[in-house]
Amino acid sequence: MTKYQNYIDGHFSSETSDRIAVHNPATGEKLADVPDSDTATVDAAINAARRAQPAWERLPAIKRADYLRQVSAKLREQAEHLAKIISLEQGKVMPLARVEVGFTADYIDYMAEWARRLEGEILSSDRPGEHMFLMRKPLGVVVGVLPWNFPFFLIARKMAPALITGNTIVIKPSEETPLNALKFAQLLSETEMPAGVFNLVCGRGEGAGSALTMHKDVDLVTFTGSIDTGIRIMQAAAPNLTRVNLELGGKAPAIVLDDADLDLSADALVTSRLINTGQVCNCAERVYVQRGIADALTSKVVERMAAARYGDPLSDDTLDMGPLINKAGLDKVMAIVASARDAGADIRTGGQRAATETGFHYQPTVITGCTPQMEVMKKEVFGPVLPIQVVDDLDEAIAMANDTDYGLTSSIFTRNLNAAMKACRELRFGETYINREHFEAMQGFHAGRKKSGIGGADGKHGLYQFTETHVVYMQTQ
Ligand code: NAD
Questions:
Q1: CATH of domain 6-248+451-475
Q2: Helix (H, G, I), strand (E, B) or coil at 137
Q3: CATH number of 252-439
Q4: Nearest alpha carbon, ligand 1 atom 22
Q5: What pLDDT digit, counting tens, does each position of 276-300 carry?
Q6: Are 34 and 178 in contact (CB under 8 A)?
Q7: What is the pTM (predicted TM-score) of this model?
Q8: Is 380 an annotated catalytic residue?
Q9: pLDDT at 316 over 90
């Protein structure tokens, strides 16, 4: 079995003998073990990133872009192998794992393209003969703490904007899915990227994660994961006043009005709910359907969900989904569905652990007769479960959609332009999708409101989260 090691200062090494086992969620089989890093290892990684940063910042951005493109080229060469690692440790079906690898390489290239587009500003002064320049500078050392659901893409979402703007980075992957990140580090080590610019430390949240986020020599912690962990990270960063960028959970509402295209709506809802076995922060988690079309839409959704195919994510079949990530994920889904059933909701399809021989599979499930008080309408399920509630009109749907602590994404299905624009004005979410499934683009801005996060990622606005401003006042005669 390969001995996996951290990647620090351009070398693979493991100072600690403690290890974390990594399992295949489709079979329960142990795949490997990785370092459970201690505080000394975290220090070594941060110190390496700190030492490498000034020289990295001094490089012309276009040179930093060259290094990033070497990494994306390596990922493309190894795309099939990388997809297989993601599928094995995360349970993602192979077609989606391939998309994740391709998107990751494209994202790195997209961020590299900003090299010649990073701009400061020249401001007009109140004083004669004075020139004012607003410069944009890197923050310094960035820590990126990752979840397991899009483990490979999230590396790029953190490292590419950090590096192109002149920061260096230490990444901690989820303890559930470190193997794809270790392969990423190996491929990066085969490029000319200078030592210390990109570092990877494996470990548990309470151990390495906590040590990274409370470290005094870190300038930004960028985190993607659950709300509870986001709160702990903000607390850990507070004594040093370290900046945080938090991409947290969601409970995305989808509103379907009487005039909607029902087939389009049903297709989009089901695609959105089944992708990655429902384990996606931004995808439809609750549906508000207008009374006149409620039965017709529900039948179409039930038919599509019941027909969804699941099984071994590595299989050559085109499956709609694989297993859930682990037993805790499965238990959570089962408990939320049971509580909806107990509260009087109807399970229209699914509602059971799937009868596969191994693994944490759960049946695609549709629940009707839901009310706002039910846990399934309030709590992030993170599984292939779609609860539906009937509403009388758009106002009621918007009020219910907004009645939540979350604020990541939302959607509306209608042919009425006024209704769509009213929803955009009144929905308190970072994103709204009109007549399409929930899923963001790399040139957009993915940012949650309320407890779904602070700051955001992607596009120009995401890039500038990795910079700070420096204003220069130059007095001339
Ligand atoms: P999680 O919060 O359990 O873990 C995420 C990471 O945080 C892991 O690497 C973990 O080791 C680390 N961690 C845990 N405790 C820590 C601590 N005290 N200090 C520092 N690090 C710690 O989340 P998860 O289960 O891996 O991911 C699922 C969650 O992520 C869902 O809620 C989902 O909605 C969210 N998510 C959000 C986005 C987004 O863009 N908003 C994207 C993907 C996933």
A1: 3.40.605.10
A2: strand
A3: 3.40.309.10
A4: 205
A5: 999 999 999 999 999 999 999 999 9
A6: yes
A7: 0.97
A8: no
A9: no
